[in-house]
Amino acid sequence: MSADEKLKSFTESKELKQRMDQIKHKILVLSGKGGVGKSTVAANIAVTLAMEGKNVGLLDVDFHGPSIPVLLHLEGQQIRTDNESIIPVDFVERIKVMSLGFMLQNQDDAVIWRGPMKMNVIKQLLTDVKWGELDYLIIDFPPGTGDEPLSVAQLIPDSDGAIIVTTPQNLSLLDVRKSISFCKQVNVPVLGVIENMSGLICPNCKTVINVFKAGGGETMAKEMGVRFLGRIPIDPLIVEASDSGKPFVYHYAKTEAAVAFKKAVEPLLNMHSGSKTETEKVIHIHKKENITKKVLKIAIPVVEGHLSAHFGHCEEFAIYDIDVENKNVLNQENAPPPPHEPGVLPAWLSEKKVDIIIAGGMGTRAQELFTEKGIQVIVGAPAEGPDELINAYLNGALAAGENICDH
User: Fold this and answer.
1) CATH classification of the domain holding 266
2) For residue 312, is pLDDT > 70?
3) Same domain, 210 and 179
């Protein structure tokens, strides 16, 4: 690389960092399957966040079918600049939009670009668009695991993570699993799964008809150890709003589907001003500090088949031996603990060579005792089964929230 090329590369990277540093949270919206309503979900997530008082950017990088201009009635908008930067379109107060659709002279034009050109355009959009200070940037991708999400994963390595959109039927779920696997491979945290088109609400009697079955997304999320964010039912009003370019969650805020959207974004609203959440941080197995062992032993306090709210009040400990490199379980045993007294459990688990304890809640002094024994403590884990927690940990998607029992 010549000196001029190095300077250009450095300048672009510096500009990219400056742009992205003004954005508190970067959220990717992905799906391995087309036709699941991913763009509709992305647009309504953005509007829901804005309705909560957040400043939001919505970036549409679907080269082959940019839908955001249609969903927000922005057809015909063209790229504008101020001689130095690309100016996003102000949709409504608190929402700025940029779409590849704005680059097309005609919305019927086909975009036929190879991977390197796509990478350059995405880099230009991320580097040159003058978003200003945002609370959230929602990035809508084409279906699949191709150049577009890979480019953004490389250009924004500190993104908060991805929301995966699916529909309930098996054909969709098979492809969506690939999106989750893709995220694992490129170190993008999975924030959760949304099951869209989950039952048709009859406009007359309000009965729910499961056109595409129901619950497939939730089951898949549990199997893959990621959070399930909720079901969005089919509502004819969503179709009407989308076709007319009216944000559904704003114009039909009291409907069941709009309420479901609001519930789905609650984990995003809990995020603080850093790059991860205050009440929820995603634990990555490959980013553990001070752990170099090839096999880790993880202990989870269990009561009635689920994580115990307080580690000292459990019926037994589920103890797993995991292969760090291959991210799989080598062995698992259930061990009843000794009577709970101060200092007993840290000593007992240390004797069992435990490296990590995943807990719901734990007092400060207890955490100090575990640390003294060389045992890492993860608190605020959700009250799920131990197998689900281990799978989430292995997949880099364990969501640890508040310490729910600090005494």
Assistant:
1) 3.40.50.300
2) yes
3) yes
